[in-house]
Amino acid sequence: MVRETWEVGVIVERRALDNPWVDHGWMPVSVLPGAPSAAPWTVLHETDGLTRFYAGTFELELFGCDTGMYRDNLHSGRPSLWIALRSTESPPGVALHLVTADPYETESRTEVGTDIIEAVPMPIELQQWLAAFVEKHHVERPFIKRQRNRADADALARRGPRSGTMDDAE
What we know:
Strand content: 35-45%
Helix content: 10-25%
Order of helices and strands: EEEEHEEHEHH
Largest sheet: 4 strands, antiparallel
Mean pLDDT: 87
C-alpha cells in the first residue's frame, strides 16, 4: 500500500461562550506545514474571551487508494484539511484526534457527534504535496453500473390457498 506522511502543527482556539450550559467552546483554526519547536498546548495569543493554542503536531497521512477523494478536495475551489478534537478528562479538556485531507473520512466521523470537527484552509505547501501525490499515484477506475435482474413474473405470481395441514406438505 502506498503511504506518505507529513507532520503538521495544529492551531486551535478556546472561546468564551455566553451560554447557560457551557462556558467555552473549542475551534480548530489552522494548520502549519511542519512541526514547530513549541510544546503542545503552548498559548500563542490571549485576549478577553479567546485563547489561541498550538495544540501539537499530527502526522497527516496520504494513502494511494484515496487519491480520488484528495483530487475532489483539490478541485473543490477551497482545498481544506479537516481537524478533529476529542474531549478528554485531562487539561485542557480536548485532545488532537485527527487531521485529514479526505473529506469523506471526516463525514463518516461526524455521525458519532462527539468530536469537534472543522475544515481549515490547506496551506499552499500541502496543496502542492497533495497534488504531486495524486498525480503520481492516482489510477482512474471506471464506473461500472450494475445491471438489475429482471423480475421473474412466474415467481411473483400468486399461489393458491394453503390449508396448513401436514398432508399438504407431502
